[in-house]
Hints:
By secondary structure, the chain is an all-alpha fold. It has helices at 4-16, 23-49, 54-78, 88-116.
Amino acid sequence: MKIIIPTLFILLLTSAFAHCQTQAEMNIQASNTYKKADKELNKIYTALFNKLDVSEKKALAAAEKAWITFRDFECKFECMENEGGSIYPLVYSSCLTNMTEKRTAELKEVLKEMEGK
């Protein structure tokens, strides 16, 4: 079962980049997708940050710093079996994208709740 899940994950990733011709192109596309997700996260983070008081800003900044550390270690852990392989950048960037999109959704919910008050 352990072998099947990573294999299915890799197949899903590679099918998402089917228009790419080489592994290098897929790696670049995955990196660009992550950069786009990170840009959106920064936009939402800034909008939320600007609505907070001083103590809330400090708390959010600390939480975000801790989250970034967690995200990076989590993705390194999830991608360990691909370390050293040509697919590693694709899998790693895809993990970063997934986690970043989830964090963006979380912050959007907080922002939405604040705007509803």
